[in-house]
Amino acid sequence: MTDLYQSQRAMRHIRKAAMQRGVMAILDIGSAKIACLILRFDGPERLREVDGVGPMAGQSSFRVIGAATTRSRGVRFGEIAVMNETERAIRTAVQAAQKMAAVRVDHAIACFSGAEPRSYGLAGEWDLQDSVVTEQDVARVLSACDVPDIGEGREVVHAQPVNFALDHRSGLADPRGQIGNRLACDMHMLTVDAAVVQNLLYCIKRCDLELAGLASSAYVSGIASLVEDEQELGAACVDLGGGSTGLSIFIKKHMIYADAVRMGGDHVTSDIAKGLRVPLTTAERIKTKHGGVLATGMDDREMIEIGCDSGDWDKDRRAVSRTELIGIMRPRVEEILEEVRDRLEAAGFDHLPSQQIVLTGGASQIPGLDGLAARILGQRVRLGRPLRVQGLPQSVTGPAFSSVVGLCLFAAHPQDEWWDFDIPAERYPARSLKRAFKWFRDNW
Amino acid sequence: MQPLTAPRRAAGVAHHRDPAPSKVAYRLHRLWLTPLFRALLRVGLPAFIVTFGVGHYLGDPDRRLALAGSLADMREAVAQRPEFLVGMMVVDGASPALADAIRAVAAVGLPQSSLDLDLAAVRARIVTLDAVAEADLRVNPGGVLNVAITERVPALVWRTPEALELLDATGRRVARVLARADRPDLPLIAGEGADQMAPEALRLLAAAQPLLPRLRGLVRIGARRWDLVLDRDQRILLPPDEPVRALERIIALDQAQDLLARDIVAIDMRNQARPVLRLAPHALRELRRANGIQTVENTL
Q: Where are the beta strands (DSSP E) in A205-364?
C-alpha cells in the first residue's frame, strides 16, 4: 500500500514538473484508437480577472497544440495484449502529435479503460486533538479508513475523498479550519489489475515518456461529457468504447462508482464479420456507413453492397439488406446495454435522486442508439459529447474523444486524492528515523 | 472465365507499410525537437566548422605569410592605379613666402598614391606653422592635392629684447619682422607678457583713437598693467584693472583742458581716485616766470 502511495505521489511531482515546463502529453490508450494530445500550459489562468468567467475548472489554463490519433493495435478489452504493437501505436500517435505541436514532450498522462476496475466505498473516523481541523487531521482521517481486502495483484488508481462529516454535519467538501470533535470521511477507491497497469507503464516508458498521472477512462470521460448539473445532481456516464464499455456514476461532483463491461463496438464489428462472412475491415466500414439499431420501413429495400476483395466474384458481389445488418447489430448492442443496466442496478443507481444517463464514446454514434438505450436503461438518456477546450481540432470533438478531453481537464485540475495529503507523522516508518540517526552518527 | 492462377499482387501492395516510426526514427525526431540540440546543430555546428576550418588553414605560418603577402600585393596593385595617383600639390590662400614654407613643411613626396597619403599627418605638420590659422586638405579629381590655407592676420607688433614679432588679435605669434618700418601700419606693444594680453591692448588702442597721431605704443609693465607712451616721452600710467576707463578719462581731460599738450612727463592713473601729474623739470618755474611771478631760488 505504501509503495503505491509513494508512486502516486511521485507522479504528482512529475505532473508539477511538467506544468512548470509547460508541455504535457495526454494519452488515451483504447482498444479502437490511441489518441495523443499535447497541451501547453500558459502559466496562471488568464481569465481569472475577467468578470463573469470563473477559472472554469482549469480549462482556461491550457491549450491543445498538437493532436494525433492512430488505429490501436495490440489492445484488447482496453488492456495491452501485444506489447510491441501497442508501443508502436503509441509512438505513432506521439510522434505525429509532436510534429503538429513542433515541441518535444517528456511527460504524459495516460488513461485506460480495461483492467477490471472495482469500486470500494471506504469510511474512516478520527478524533480531533484540538478542535480545529488541520491538513494533518484530513490526512489522518484518510489513513484511518479501513481498507478492505482488494485482492492479490490489484492496485489502487483512484482514492478520492468524496465526503467529510464533522460531528453531525455531513456533506462537507473541505473541512479544513472548521471546528468540531470528530471528523469522519467517505472515500471512493478504484482498484484495477496490477499486471495491466504494469504493462501500460512499461509501454509508456519504452516510448521515452515519463508518466505524470494515471486515470480510469470511465472517470475522465464522465468529467468531459457530463455537464456540471449532472455531476452535481447525480448521473451515470456510459463510455461505449471499442473493446470495453466503462460506466461511472457521479454525484456532488465526485465519482462514487466506476465499472467496466468487457464488450464494445469491436464485438459488434466481429458479429457483422461473422454474420456476413466478410473481413473485419469491411465489417467496420459497413457498420460505420450503414449501421443502425432501430428498424424502419425502408430497411428491406435498402440493399448494401458488400465490396469485398476475396477473389470470389459471387461472394464479392453480394448485397445484404439493412434489415439483416440491424438484425446482426441490435442483439449485441442490447446485450451491452443490458449488462450496463445490471451493473448500474448492482451499484444502486436506482436510489440516486437523478437518473440521468449519458452515452458517449465511439460506439455511441450508432444511429438510433439513444432510442434503444432509453428502452433498456430508462427514459432519461442522452448522447454526450466532450466539452470544448481551447485549441481542440475539429476532428477531435466527437464523442469518441470524450475520455481524452476529460483527461486534459484531469491534467489541468486534478481532484484531491489520498496521496495529495502528507503522510501523518506517526505513520512514518520507524526505519527512516533510524536512518536519519545513523546518518548523523556517521557524519558528525 | 477465371484465370487458373490467383491474381498476384505486387509485393509492396500486399501488406500495408507500418505507419509506426522505428525506435531510432522516433528518438531522432524527439532529439530534433529539443531546442538546445536544434540551436547547436543550426548555429553551433556551422560556426564550429567555419572556425575550425579557418583555424586549421591559418595554423601553418607559411600559409599565413603567403596570405599576408598576397593581400599586400592586391592592395599595392589597386593603390598603383593611375586613378589614385596624386601628382601635384596646390596651396591656396597663402602668400608666396608662406606657400614655400608650407611645401617645405608638408614634405609630401609626389607623385604618390592617394591611398598611401596620410592627409591628417600632413595637415598636422602644416598647422605647426605659426602663420597658418587653418589648413584644409583634400585630394581633388585629377590627382591634385589641394591645400586651402587661412592665414593668421597680424594685428600687433611686439618688441621683445631679441626681435620684433608680429601677433594676431589673440596674441598668437604670426611671424618675425626685421624692422619696425616693415609694418608701420600696425601698432607697437612691448614688455614682458604683452602678447598674452593682446586683446586688451587692442581695446586700449581702439579707445586711444583721438591720441593716435601722438601714440608711440603700449608698454606692459611687470606683466601686470599698461603704460601708454606718447611722443615727447610722455607716459600715461594705466591701472591694472579697467585701464580703458582710465584712458577715456584722460582723453576727456585732454579734450577739455588740453592736458597732454602741457609740459608733463607722465600722468599717473594707477590710483584712479587720485590721478597724479608729473611735470617736466623746470616746468613750474617756467610757468611762474611766464606769469610774471618772481620767486626766490634756493637750493632747497
A: 210-216, 235-240, 245-251, 254-261, 303-305, 319-321, 356-360
